[in-house]
Amino acid sequence: EDLRQAAADRLAELIGANDDRLNTGFLATGMLLPVLADHGHADLAYRLLLRTGQPSWLGMLEAGATTMWEYWDGIASDGQVKGSLDHYSKGAVASFLHTHVAGLRLPEFPTSDEAGYRRIRVAPVLGGGITSASTVQDTVAGRIEISWRVDRGTFVLDLDLPRGVIADVELPDGRAYVASAGRSEASCPLPHNAV
Asked: What are the distances in angstroms from CA 119 to CA 68, 101, 149, 178, 179?
């Protein structure tokens, strides 16, 4: 535990030394962006998420991908396919979109009464110039809907929680509150350099 921050800082340093390019494989790719964002390197996480060229997620789109490839360069310029063209390892970035960009997370250690999305954490991490995001999660209790937007310098969060679901909400300005079932909206001034 006492080495986590130092390890995340070293990871950020190594990525910077690699011109903010990825060099990860199957196991590490899905954990990369959350680890960076959770340890004070959200700006780097967003640079990696939105990077173009090779290797990058958007580099796959530039090359015509409609799925996530196993290899960053899954189709060579001569059309040769390398590995799977629909693969989980790089597609794990979708988790970051839900948990950090849109902000829907589970408690780190849920109790049996909180399991199954009965208690959630809503904590969007702003960055990358992204000014809105949304996600939905269908649960046994019903559908959870989260959306946020930046509107003229104000962060606006909309929640819709089914009966039996409680949300611990953390706004970008540091304020926190507990939301219960139903629709609700919260807002705060956008922190300086938050987007």
From this structure: 31, 19, 23, 10, 10
End-to-end, the C-alpha distance of the chain in Å comes to: 30
* Sheet architecture: strand order including 104-105: 104-105, 119-122, 166-170, 176-179
Tens of pLDDT along 63-118?
Answer: 999 999 998 889 988 889 999 999 888 888 999 999 999 999 999 899 999 999 99
CA atoms of 73 and 34, how far apart (whole Å): 23
The strand pairing partners of 157, in sequence order, are 148, 186
Report how far residue 106's alpha carbon sits from residue 83's, in angstroms, rounded to the nearest whole number.
33
Nearest by Cα to 156 from 165, 146, 166: 146
Whether 159 and 167 have beta carbons less than 8 Å apart is answered as yes
Residue 137: how many other CB atoms lie within 10 Å: 16
Laid out side by side, the sheet with 132-139 consists of 132-139, 142-151, 154-161, 182-189
DSSP conformation class of 190: P
Residue type, 192: H
Residue with tokens 């079932």: 181
Enumerate the β-bridge partners of residue 133: 148
pLDDT tens digits along 13-51: 999 999 999 888 778 888 999 999 999 999 999 999 999
